[in-house]
Design goal:
homodimer, 105 residues, 5 strands, 4 helices, globular, Alpha-Beta Plaits
């Protein structure tokens, strides 16, 4: 089960793709078909694909154990090739985050 | 505990604020100080504030029970006023999503 919490020890990457609606499903299919590549990188926890109902965004919400794990993955040739292919689908806004606050009823 | 899953019955809103680093903490403080406003709307589940390590983004990852709940909240005067004030901090990219796929090791 994927959880969001303020606990230390999780690095969150949020990658927002802006695309034409006809590309949305293709990008999701590409990322799902190649999911073994991130999943076999040490320190990878989860990737969670979100599709906007208007068709114009795909958000990948990704959790890593640490910045070191992300940096190591970023040097893996398969991982680099996959990220490059994904980037060819659409412009994307990639940032590294911490969870600052959670509010739950 | 906030969880991400493909289960039906959750509508996800992802709101990405692009801002100057000196504004990042102020926006988070504003949203935390006013958290009672979304939390008392029927159908609100959770809001999860993420701050980019480079200072230039705040991502609010919000869960609602349904689209109807979000639409009802969007007509609440306190909620409207808060959203308007938040929008004055910075340009933001607001979309409504479903969870298309989760991959977890």
């Amino acid at each position: 089960m994927v959880t969001i919490s303020e606990q230390a020890g999780i690095l969150t990457v949020i990658n927002v793709f802006t695309l034409e609606p006809e590309q949305q499903e293709r990008l999701v299919d590409f990322l799902v078909e190649n999911k073994e590549i991130p999943m076999r990188q040490p320190g990878f926890i989860s990737a969670n694909l979100h599709t906007s109902l208007d068709g114009t965004r795909v958000v990948n919400y990704i959790q890593w154990r640490s910045r070191e794990a992300l940096e190591a993955a970023s040097k893996n040739p398969d991982f680099i090739a996959m990220a490059k292919q994904a980037a060819e689908f659409a412009p994307h806004d990639f940032h590294v985050y911490k969870v600052a606050s959670t509010m739950e009823v």
